[in-house]
């Protein structure tokens, strides 16, 4: 059981839930929840949710694989540097998850499989090469989340041509989170935190624009208010005192709050019921975060 717990800990289960929320938001944008053909797409939805869970988990496992030497110094309690899981075991586990994610997406469509392969590629690129670059690293991580949203939209392939540009929004959001996360060990700069606040505001404005255009402004605002409270409360605290602990809390809140952002997308393009279904994942993610690290 301890071994299983260690493998789960490497996958960051609380984060995996947020990746499922991304895909469900994409499904909502594609129109599946509001076309009356939900039951016809149920298997595809489940496959895409399983796919993203595997892809995210595999990417995070390889984060620990490539950081094994650094973690001996900064995070010796992690599974690999502590010796509870060998580097070889972690590599096999991460590879299995990534391949499973691609195969599951391929059961939906070849386009979905290509998107899943793209997520795997950019996840490995981030972990191996771009992670420590101040701009390429956050951009790389953002691309993974942007592709994840497109993975959900790909449930109806034709929808990708119409809504592909929406991937820019999670790219910007995750760019900001990844940028400030660099300071969660040794502390960070207030400049990066202010930039993150600006980018958060831009993301919110984008969602409000589409909700206004789709006559869903009030419903969107109802969801965005707790979203903004969750991300800005710890961010403002980090701005006041940018020590590692405060920045870590801001990063954790930013990641988990993705679920509410995805719920806002769902209510903007679909129904309140789809949004509430996605928002219901938030308590699960928060509960998992009590047992498994988010960052």
Automatic annotation (TrEMBL):
It is an enzyme of class 2 (transferase). The keyword Membrane applies. It is found in: Membrane. The chain crosses the membrane at residues 20-38, 44-66, 139-157, 163-181, 193-211, 217-235, 272-293. CDD domains: PT_UbiA_1 (cd13964). Keywords: Cell membrane, Membrane, Transferase, Transmembrane, Transmembrane helix. One of its GO terms (molecular function) is 4-hydroxybenzoate polyprenyltransferase activity. InterPro entries: Prenyltransferase_related (IPR050475), UbiA_prenyltransferase (IPR000537), UbiA_sf (IPR044878). It holds the Pfam family UbiA. The keyword Membrane applies. It is a multi-pass membrane protein. Its EC number is 2.5.1.39. PANTHER family: CHLOROPHYLL SYNTHASE, CHLOROPHYLL SYNTHASE, CHLOROPLASTIC. This is 4-hydroxybenzoate polyprenyltransferase. It comes from Mucilaginibacter pocheonensis. The lineage of its organism: Bacteria, Pseudomonadati, Bacteroidota, Sphingobacteriia, Sphingobacteriales.
């Amino acid at each position: 059981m301890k071994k299983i717990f260690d493998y789960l800990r490497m996958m960051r289960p609380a984060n995996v839930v947020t990746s499922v929320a991304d895909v469900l938001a994409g499904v909502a944008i594609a129109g599946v929840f509001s076309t009356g053909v939900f039951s016809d797409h149920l298997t595809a939805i489940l496959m895409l949710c399983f796919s993203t869970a595997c892809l995210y988990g595999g990417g995070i496992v390889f984060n620990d694989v490539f950081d094994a030497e650094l973690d001996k110094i900064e995070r010796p309690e992690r599974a690999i540097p502590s010796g509870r899981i060998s580097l070889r075991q972690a590599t096999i586990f991460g590879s299995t998850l990534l391949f499973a994610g691609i195969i599951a997406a391929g059961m939906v469509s070849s386009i979905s499989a290509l998107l899943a392969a793209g997520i795997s590629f950019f996840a490995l690129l981030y972990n191996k090469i771009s992670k420590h670059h101040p701009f390429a690293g956050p951009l790389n991580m953002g691309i993974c989340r942007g592709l994840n949203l497109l993975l959900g939209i790909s449930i109806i392939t034709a929808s990708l041509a119409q809504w592909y540009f929406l991937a820019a929004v999670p790219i910007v959001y995750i760019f900001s989170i990844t940028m400030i996360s660099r300071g969660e060990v040794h502390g960070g700069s207030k400049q990066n935190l202010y930039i993150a606040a600006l980018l958060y505001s831009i993301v919110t404005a984008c969602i409000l624009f589409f909700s206004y255009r789709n006559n869903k402004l009030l419903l969107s605002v109802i969801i965005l208010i707790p979203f903004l409270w969750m991300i800005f409360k710890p961010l403002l605290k980090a701005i006041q005192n940018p020590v590692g602990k405060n920045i870590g809390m801001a990063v954790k809140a930013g990641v988990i709050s993705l679920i509410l952002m995805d719920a806002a997308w769902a209510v903007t393009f679909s129904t309140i019921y789809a949004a509430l279904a996605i928002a219901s994942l938030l308590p699960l993610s928060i509960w998992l975060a009590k047992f498994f690290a988010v960052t």
